[in-house]
Specification:
It is built from one helix and eight strands. Helices cover about 5% and strands about 40% of the residues. Strands 1, 2, 3, 4, 5, 6, 7 and 8 form an eight-stranded antiparallel sheet that branches.
Length: about 160
């Protein structure tokens, strides 16, 4: 009896990351005709200043300590308005904004949808459409996290380290 084996090909990414390989999903669909998206991670901090011990030099008192007291993320995206949109374009964002409810977003690399590096609920804090004369109509949307993300996994981001 013959046994067949399937060879698995692993592609190693090299060079610079191509932005087209990074996708933003809203619900189960990618952001349609997206030209760019930006994910901004923010830390809320608190400063503390205490008197240094008596034996410390006077200059030590000039420095404040900082601690992280909150984390948040914001995702902004821009795209082209397309009449036959099959993904999450302006119309889908408009519907979600109008509902005033949180939506699920995912950030991942193309071809690795089983391993998003960020999954969480967000609210649409701004939605803009621009319709210039004799030019492409565009949209931009800003999403802010609604609570802690369900997934925040740096190991899902391909990063190869050079050989020593």
């Amino acid at each position: 009896m013959a046994t067949s084996t399937t060879a698995t090909t692993t592609t190693t990414k090299t060079g610079y990351c191509n932005g087209s390989d990074m996708l933003l999903y809203v619900g189960d669909k990618a952001a349609g005709h997206c030209t760019t998206h930006t994910t901004t991670m923010t830390s809320e901090t608190k400063e503390r200043q205490v008197k240094p011990v008596a034996t410390a030099p006077i200059t030590k008192a000039l420095f404040k300590g900082k601690g992280v007291i909150g984390l948040s993320y914001t995702i902004s995206s821009e795209g082209l308005v397309f009449y036959g949109e099959t993904e999450s374009g302006f119309k889908a964002f408009f519907k979600a904004w109008k509902a005033g409810e949180s939506i699920t977003v995912k950030c991942m690399e193309r071809g690795d949808s089983a391993r998003p590096y960020l999954v969480g609920k967000c609210v649409i804090t701004s939605l803009e459409r621009t319709d210039p004369a004799n030019d492409d109509s565009t949209y931009s949307v800003t999403l802010e996290n609604d609570g802690a993300p369900d997934t925040l996994d740096e190991s899902a981001i391909t990063e190869t380290t050079p050989s020593a």
